[in-house]
């Protein structure tokens, strides 16, 4: 039996800049019981759809500055919380969380809402999850905006373009950036995790205390943080990792994806620097596009330049 926690609704009361109505669907993945997944659904019901996916340690609150820009452009915005995050259900066992299940849960949301002609906006783990959903359901997706995201496979070919190394070398060795290992080990070993600490450390501009507290809101105690801890541990550090296998399958789909694929990366995020070039070179739909670099923004560019990211997405939808 899957042991699940739901963050009390009062934890989400009166969050700054977040007036959106919560919505829920039931999603399934092999080996765990059905779970309730939260999402926002804003804008015209008959408008083109933008699916905004977050990563670790955030939730749909991350997109609060992006959503109004898209809605004003006539775009329907769907922004889910990954299982284990935000207002979504939170299994209490870390082993309940796998990349394959995260993909299945998000795919289940897309199917439950019957989303079509989708513009995928993927940041952080939203890339590996969302792009893998695209690989499984290519006919639902019309275009992609990749924003400070990755798709690691520990492939030796990744040696060179990336600032944060993670690639195989020879037949049986890998090179991994020390800072990446430090982050992974901290998430696994630290007696307490505070999402707001991570967000505050990875933006170019200081965030107000009440904003940082909003990122902590989904996690009132340790029983709610299993997904928060486990997601970083799902990063494929070797070529034999299950996540690397999923990533290779996703890459095979992307290497034949000829619909619009635009990168929108910030200039102050060493963790993902170079991935824009990888996508531009390997995805047919990225060739000849007007790719964007946002100045003065960190890893969480939605916080540093949310309106600008919204304008980039709206322009991609309008012109393609």
Count of DSSP strands: 12
Helix count from the secondary structure assignment: 10
Strand numbers in spatial order across the main sheet: 2-3-5-4-7-8-11-12
CATH topology: Rossmann fold
> How many strands, what sense, and barrel or not for the largest sheet?
8 strands, mixed
**In CATH, what is the class?**
Alpha Beta
Tally the structural domains: 1
- Give the helices and strands as they follow along the chain: EEEEHEEHEHEEEHHHHHEHEH
| CATH homology-level superfamily | Alpha/Beta hydrolase fold, catalytic domain
**Class by alpha and beta content:** alpha/beta
Low-confidence stretches: none
Strand content: 15-25%
Summed over residues and divided by their number, the pLDDT gives a mean of: 97
Helix fraction by DSSP (H/I, runs of at least 4): 25-40%
* Apparent shape: globular
Task: Please state the second-level CATH architecture.
Answer: 3-Layer(aba) Sandwich
- CA-to-CA gap between the ends? 46 Å
Q: Give the radius of gyration.
A: 18 Å
